[in-house]
Description:
The protein is α+β, with helices and mostly antiparallel strands.
Amino acid sequence: MNIRQGSIRLFRFAGIDLFLHWSWLLFAAYEVSSRSQEYSSVTWNVLEYLALFLIVMIHEFGHALACRSVGGAANQIVLWPLGGVAYVNPPPRPGATLWSIAAGPLVNVALIPILYGLGMLSASAGWAETMPNFARWLHSVELINVVLLVFNILPIYPLDGGQILRSLLWFVVGRARSLMAVTVIGFVGVAGLIFLAVRSQSAWFGLISAFILMNCWSGLQQARALSKLEKLPRREGFACPSCKTAPTIGELWGCGNCGKPFDIFEAQGVCPRCGSRYDTTKCLECGRAHPLREWIAPVTGPPGL
């Protein structure tokens, strides 16, 4: 799902643009109005939702910054009513992917002792009697962080827990099979969420179920494509400058002019049908593009030479 459409750019931090989808504002207004009885002033409802915004934001920045720390690309985050999406592209290695995904929930884990400590301070200082609104707000923020953490680490793709499971399976069964396994588990999980949505008559669970279902289907198609890609022969003498993977042999690159597929390495960057020239070549493994001359793998001699 391309949720970047209809999003408003808020700011840039560490080279990462933060966007807010317009629907977030509608959902925020609904949540604030529906919980207006929780506090003596609606201001605290607004502060509660802003705390949710902050927690989700730093969770997504955890993903993005971790991805960058392992040499991956991450430059956009979008917040929307169902949470946040960090557009990360880690190197196609299980360890790099695992760290990029696990860093998000680890942010919530780090917040637990901080918020718990503030809660203990609130109890000992008697803020429930002297500042009841603040004490109730602090408890709500603590609960929000825990609920987000628990939900995110469910082993359902594409939630963080499902992607962490995929990264761990990647070490054992490979890239394609690990994705296939977690999407199948995701279909089972989404069936449970749909049942819960119907049972509780929750529109929010229904939206979450639809989002997960579409991503599981997309993940399944990607797993099938990766499985086919892994079986193709590789071209010797070439390697992606980013992920060091040798490119596959075959007509797998589409010409943007005539739409016909061709082997960009065999054709040396020129479409054999319409003559369009391509100065850069996209890696089918990691998705990054580099000039064709940078794909030449260095020739190594025998030891001692």
